Amino acid sequence: MRRKVAPDSTAMVGGGGGGGATEAERQEQAQLFSAIRNGEDLGPFVRRVFASGRPESLLSSLRQFARSKETEIEDVCKAHYQDFIRAVDDLRSLLSDVESLKSALADSNDALQSAAGPLLAAVDAYLEARSIATNLAAALRAARLCSRLFALLARANEHLAADHLYLTLRAVAAAERDLLPAAPHPTIRRMLLRLIPAVRAHAERKISKEFSDWMVQIRVASRHLGQIAIGRASAARQRDEELRARQRQAEEHAHFRSGSTTATPTLRDHSYSLRVEEDDDWAGDDADDLAAAAASASSDGGEPSLDLTPLYRAYHIHKTLGLEERFRRYYFENRKLQLTSDFQVSSLTPFLESHQTFFAQIAGFFIVEDRILRTGGGLIARPDVDVLWETAVTKMVSVLEDQFSRMQTANHLLLIKDYVSLLGVTLHRYRYAVDPLLDVLSKHRDKYHDLLLSDCRRQVSDALAADKFEQMLMKKEYEYSMNVLSFQIQTSDITPAFPYVAPFSSSVPDLCRISRSFVEDSISFMSHGGQLDIYPIVKKYLERLLGEALDGSILRLIDSGGLGVSQAMQVAANMGVLERACDFLFRHAAQLSGIPLRIAEKGKREFPLKKSRDATVELLLGLLRKKIDDFLLLTDSISWMADSPPPNGNDYSNEVYIYLDTLVSTAQHILPIPILRWVLQGVLSHISDKIMGLFLSDAVKRFNSNAVMGIDVDLKTFESFAENQSHLFTDSDDSGANELKLALLEARQLVNLLMSNNPENFLNPVIRERSYNKLDYKKVAAITEKFRESSDRLFGTFGTRGAKQNPKQKSLDALIKRLKDAS
């Protein structure tokens, strides 16, 4: 059915307003109708008309709009009227059908009600029973939950009472995980929410207190552990040194028995076996140190034993609480603070007395940290331990530098060095880098040896000052072993009879002991310090000791001028013994350094005390020359123009002969043969020079052949003495005698020339080179001018005028004349 279109509102506005409406009123009316159709608020329009005082126009417009709508409704109803009538008819026919259906439904309902009544009653009973069963099942579940919960809580209480915190936390965690979400009652839930954090907080407080107590105990236990570990390292080093000593004795015995170049086992040949023995004996893992510390603590009863269980328990509990990372940081920071406190060096106690405790505390600290690193399950990481170790090394290096710079005693420095090296050996087994500590020891090596040299220099001066320089008497065999054999200065392998008079004085064994102690102290400082080949360094310092301390002190003793002939002779004898002692010292240093003797003895070594030895010999020779000069004062009684030659020579020669014979009888038992030979040569050469001086002296104006014959007898006396000493020399008798007689050669050639029948042969080059090669032209010219034959006396020419001239005198005059011409 077609619907009619409604008339336009603008048309209504235009038609209804009358011809008298203005254009403004029409626009206002159009706006009002548009607002009504759009359902907008009409308040503004109402306010505006009341404000203008024309409400009638608004009412008129609203009535007009209502009339227009009524007209529109009428048009619509007219358009749909037939449809509406047809729909009403349909509804009436449908109403009759509904009434019939309603009566049919009522009949069906009555039949259904009568049939389903008993069934509905049964269903109601079933539903009630089912509700009761559900309630009972819920109650049972709640009871079972409560039972499990109370059982867990009871077990947690038992574990808590028994201090089993981990089991307590597990029970609480199980209750929180399994039972708290299904708590049957809010009260129980609130109780759990309150108790579970309280139990965890209690466990954390308790385990934190235990950890704090452990931190206090571990400090004392670490110090004890460090002392035990360093002590075991010291014992192992002692065993190693004993093994080396036995090997040195065997090597030395084999070396001196065979005297051959057969290779003997050395320390370096056995370095691998030593390492194996060390590993088998003590250098295993830290369990040995911990076991030794535990055994020591149990035996002492006062020292706390090392127990890491509280630490591991605390770590486990914190891990269970989910605070693992926080506990790691807490543990690291506390241990770092504890290590820092261990670094404090008391200014009230000397470091020499506290250094063992200081280093033992640090050693025990890092042994514990190594153990925790390997068995702590990640409690501390290797970088953290390295940080702690670097801090400790830096502090220890600083402390050592400071303390070493203050020390002025070599023994104190050695004691601390030994303990630091033991600390290095101990911690090196736990793979800690100890090179900086060894570098500090090497850095102060020169200072230690300077202090040691100063001490030895003082000891050497005291030993020389206390020596009377008399031959040392040894009454017992142990004295001989202690003063001779221990330094290998014996001249024979046969033990002498006692009492035994040694060829040296008491200062020799004292100097040997001082030097041997220096070598051993030097090697003790150098060894175990990371230096492999220490022999060259020890040798350098030993040469300094011998050259500066011993040689310098002996030179000062000689220069003091307080020595007599016997004392100077004893000092010279001592130098010969010290030469053998120096060889022993270098061998001893080589053996202690692990160097084979065949290598240490290779090459010629200059005697370190050569200056003092030469000075001693020069002093002895000078004293003997002075003594000879005293005897030569007797030459004033020589008659240079004697009528007959003295039958037994001059008096001075016999005195000198007796003195020299007495001197040799004493010196041959103590002086080394080369020194004795050199001294005798010097003395005889001095006698020869003095005889030449007699002839050249201004006091001797003339001398005759009888005086020369007397000097010839004197020379024969001295030559006889030289021949008698030939048995002292290891060479042939002839060579020994000739060497001493050569010292008298100048005086002998002069006497031979003066006693020659043809002195003019001196001018023959061949004869002069063969028989007079020691004589000087000027000396011969001066002496021959004084020489006169026995018949050539003052005024003797008056009695012998016209007689034939003596051929010897003629040759002598010719010699004098030609020597004057030559000069």
Describe the protein's architecture and organization.
With 823 residues, the chain is an all-alpha fold. It is 74% helix and 1% strand. The protein contains 30 helices and four strands. The protein has helices at 9-16, 23-37, 43-52, 55-161, 165-179, 186-258, 271-281, 286-300, 309-320, 324-342, 351-375, 382-406, 410-428, 435-443, 445-466, 477-483, 507-526, 535-559, 565-592, 597-600, 610-632, 651-667, 673-696, 705-724, 733-742, 745-755, 765-771, 777-786, 796-799, 807-822, and strands at residues 473-474, 500-501, 703-704, 787-788. The strands form two sheets. Strands 1-2 form a two-stranded antiparallel sheet. It has a two-stranded parallel sheet with strand order 3-4. The radius of gyration is 65 Å and the shape is elongated. The relative contact order is 0.04. One of its GO terms (biological process) is pollen germination. This is Exocyst complex component. It is found in: Cytoplasm, Cytosol. Pfam families: EXOC6_Sec15_N (PF20651), Sec15_C (PF04091). One of its GO terms (cellular component) is membrane.
SSE layout and pairing:
Blueprint: H1 9-16, H2 23-37, H3 43-52, H4 55-161, H5 165-179, H6 186-258, H7 271-281, H8 286-300, H9 309-320, H10 324-342, H11 351-375, H12 382-406, H13 410-428, H14 435-443, H15 445-466, E1 473-474, H16 477-483, E2 500-501, H17 507-526, H18 535-559, H19 565-592, H20 597-600, H21 610-632, H22 651-667, H23 673-696, E3 703-704, H24 705-724, H25 733-742, H26 745-755, H27 765-771, H28 777-786, E4 787-788, H29 796-799, H30 807-822
Parallel strand pairs: 3-4
Antiparallel strand pairs: 1-2
Subcellular location: Cytoplasm, Cytosol
InterPro entries: EXOC6/Sec15 (IPR007225), EXOC6/Sec15_C (IPR046361), EXOC6/Sec15_C_dom1 (IPR042045), EXOC6_Sec15_N (IPR048359), EXOC6PINT-1/Sec15/Tip20_C_dom2 (IPR042044)
Main location: cytoplasm
